[in-house]
Amino acid sequence: MASEQPRKAVLQASESEGATAGGAHVGEGHGSAPRGMLRWLLTTNHKDIGTLYLIFSLSMLFIGGIMALVIRTELFQPGLQMVQPEFFNQMTTMHGLIMVFGAIMPAFTGLANWMIPLQIGAPDMALPRLNNFSFWLLPVAFLLLLSTLLMEGGGPNFGWTFYAPLSTTYAPPSTSFFIFSLHIAGISSILGAINIIATILNLRAPGMRLMDMPLFVWTWLITAFLLIAVMPVLAGAITMMLFDINLGTSYFNAAGGGDPVLFQHLFWFFGHPEVYIMILPAFGIVSAIVPTFSRKRLFGYASMVYATGSIAIMSFLVWAHHMFAVGLPLVAELFFMYTTMLIAVPTGVKVFNWIATMFRGSISFEPPMLFAIAFIVQFTIGGFSGLMLAIAPADFQYHDTYFVVAHFHYVLVPGALFAILAGAYYWLPKWTGFYPHEGLSKWHFWLSVIGVNLTFFPMHFSGLAGMPRRIPDYALQFADFNMLSSIGAFLFGISQLLFLVVIVKCARGGVRAPACAWEGAVDLEWSVPSPAPLHTFEIPPQTRDGQIIR
Amino acid sequence: MPSRDHAAQQQAVARTVRRTLLALVAMLGFAFALVPLYDVFCNLTGLNGKAASQARAAVAMEIDESRWVSVRFITQQGQGLPWTLEALDEQFRIHPGGQYSARFVFTNHADYPVRGRAVPSVSPAEGSLHLRKIMCFCFQEQTLAAGERRELPLVFQVDPDLPEGIRDLTLAYTLYPVTTPSSAGDDGAEHSAGGET
Questions:
Q1: A6-20, A274-288, B10-24, B92-106 — which is least confidently predicted?
Q2: For residues A478 and A469, what is the distance between their CA atoms, to the nearest angstrom?
Q3: Is A407 a catalytic residue?
Q4: Which residue of A105, A286, A415, B130 lies most exposed, with the fewest beta carbons within 10 A?
Q5: Which one is catalytic: A46, A296, A350, A430?
Q6: Can A350 be counted among the known catalytic residues?
Q7: Lowest-confidence region among A42-51, A342-351, B73-82
């Protein structure tokens, strides 16, 4: 079979034996598939669209990363040497917006598009044309967002959390375009979520019950519900902002009878589930990789599902832990402190289950496993700083300092991003038919680990020492920590170029991968050839207990 | 067989989509409903210190001579208003139940008439439900002529059922220009803060 595979990893429209049992060609809708640019513009194929999302998110990662390097260059030493404070504020704001909405979320959506149909034995997503539309909204949204940097008055400069009235009364003229771009990106997420729910609930192969699904599919199902629940709240909040700015309403303006704190409530009611949206799929990826490379079943599958569900439900009850210092009444501070501490429990269950999976397993340390184990350790560190922040009276000291920056970067970078990288290394053989170059991958891994920790660990200390967030210059006592962080940031940033090299090399060739590329991998995607043909599971397989019955 | 299954699947997908769209619209409605709900919640619980913005009738009540409560007044200049507000009586030590009167002075430092409003806030928030304002300048907008100085009273009572632990109440007034004209007039809009406040 391997010698029959085409050399180029770009998916061919030809069928191959494993995909269509008996060669029947179900659902033939198009004549000859378009080639070139038009193919990518018009594709309704979940694999192509997954690839588009992934390439888009990688580009956004680099753009957001350059903005981070601008920040870290200015902060390398005390004093204002590199950029004007007004531009610095635009960099911090755009870095956050691009990474959250342009890099992390689309990357997970790309992985969902590629892998969910393969893992449930479906030929494609439930709504393929909607899928195409959902993707192409994103380049439009982000072109608009990035263009605000060139507008009169500059781009958004009020932090990625864009609190009113800084983002309404005192905002640059480009803010309405920022809001518009966020609306477009939000619609993309919502449509994607609808598609994912419809696919998972209705297109599973016969015999695959919900509790037979791989955990990546479960975590995405729950994430999609979170998206449906909270993206409209964001849409409402930014619409109110738009009205305050352009129509003279006073949703968030105290002079007119409104309340700036209302903005914070609305934003964080969206914002907290949003951060769980950014981590649950990561949990799913790690839950696929760790059992594979431990050659052992996932420990406690059912408890993993229930833990994920509990985290999702509880995520609606913790939002004001971002607002401990805003003047909430004592009863509210206590309530949100207790719920925030409580949400650590199901999270802990998941961490223990991954460790229990590895216990007495036969473990090998290929790059996906390296990133997955690093995720578990470093995400837990981020979780610990989160627990510290959950203690409301202690948070009065930590709030708006670099301690918070350290916390969320630990859970997002060596957390969510490492899980995405792990997933990429894990599934690249399926996408391209070749293994990623192992040596370069390991270099990428180790440089990333050193870089990310050198960047963000000192931030715990500069935060505890009192360094505030979102400042272009700082007092002298923070200088050493900042220098370390800046060095680490450049190391980490440049190491990501290695990842780009690995991907490009892998797409072009290398060691061929069989259908089941990793010993110990059991899910449905490993039963189709590598690279996966453009059309798979056109005839649904019969399954039992999550495995195909032969 | 296959086409019937396919049709059934299409229907199931359509049903899922309808339901998620319904949930979506409901959440959007919820987001906008949160705006009035927020105020309702705050009014019911008094939790944001805003409860003290409506007139309440004077009530003949027992004066609780066994406890003292210190009531303090703070004034703050809001943005964009050429006014000052000064509390002539800055601090009271009172018994709950008694009726007291505090004097405030508004001064318009500009050479044109200006319309503004004093927005009150009570701290601690739990105390705001128990501060009854019988007569207050904060209930209306004030229009001051050029250079005018006006003295206005605040008549208030503190409920005897003020929680035991609260021994200090602070009432803060912040001055804001009037930009959403409840009565028509160019003055307020013209001389209000720059930008879309």
A1: A6-20
A2: 12
A3: no
A4: B130
A5: A350
A6: yes
A7: B73-82
Amino acid symbol at B28? L
Burial of residue A549, with CB atoms counted within 10 A of its CB: 0-12 exposed, 13-18 middle, 19 or more buried: exposed
Please tell me the distance from the alpha carbon of residue B160 to that of residue B95, in angstroms, as a whole number: 8
A198 touches chain B (CB under 8 A): yes
Q: Is A480 helix (H, G, I), strand (E, B) or coil?
A: helix
What is the distance between the alpha carbons of residues A447 and A437, in angstroms, rounded to a whole number?
16
Closest-CA residue to B127 (of B89, B88, B157): B157
**What's the alpha-carbon Rg for chain A, to the nearest Å?**
23
Q: Is A326 on the interface with B (CB under 8 A)?
A: no
Name all contacts of A477-483 with Cβ < 8 Å and 24+ positions apart: A478/A78, A479/A77, A479/A78, A482/A75, A482/A76, A482/A77, A482/A78, A482/A458, A483/A76, A483/A77
Q: What is the DSSP letter of A19?
A: T
Q: Is A240 within 8 Å of chain B by CB?
A: yes
Question: How many residue pairs bridge chain A and chain B with CB atoms within 8 Å of each other?
Answer: 102
Residue A366 and residue A518 in contact, taking contact as beta carbons nearer than 8 Å: yes
Q: Could you confirm whether A321 is annotated as catalytic?
A: yes
- Chain A residue with minimum CA distance to B45: A329
Q: Which of A169, A231, A232 sits opposite B197 (nearest CB)?
A: A169
Q: Cα dihedral sign for A162, A165, A171, A176?
A: positive
Q: A34 pLDDT exceeds 90? A: no
Start-end of H helices in chain B: 2-45, 186-190
Residues 354-413 of A with CB under 8 A from B: none
Q: 3-state DSSP call for residue A442?
A: helix
| A203 CB within 8 Å of a chain B CB | yes
Write down the pTM of the prediction: 0.88
User: Cα–Cα distances in Å, from A289 out to A359, A381, B94?
Assistant: 14, 20, 69
Q: What is the per-residue pLDDT across B77-102, written as a single tens digit (0 to 9) for each?
A: 767 778 888 888 888 898 888 888 99
The single residue listed with the structure tokens 């919820």 is B30
- How far is Cα A339 from Cα A316, in angstroms, rounded to an integer? 10
ipTM score for this prediction? 0.84
Q: Which residue in the list A46, A95, A183, A296 is annotated as catalytic?
A: A95
**A29 pLDDT band (50/70/90 cuts)?**
low
Do residue B12 and residue A250 have CB atoms under 8 angstroms apart? no
Q: For residue B9, give the nearest of A118, A125, A314 by alpha carbon.
A: A125
Look at A265 and B34 and tell me if their CB atoms are within 8 Å. yes
Instruction: Tell me the pLDDT tens digit for each residue of A138-184.
Output: 999 999 999 999 999 999 999 999 999 999 999 999 999 999 999 99
Helix (H) or strand (E) holding B152: strand B149-158
d(CA A347, CA A364): 25
Please tell me the distance from the alpha carbon of residue B134 to that of residue B155, in angstroms, as a whole number: 5
Q: Which of A448-457, B43-52, B115-124 has the highest mean pLDDT?
A: A448-457
d(CA A40, CA A33): 11
Distance from C-alpha of B55 to C-alpha of B153, rounded to nearest angstrom: 13
Backbone CA torsion sign across A16, A20, A21, A23: negative
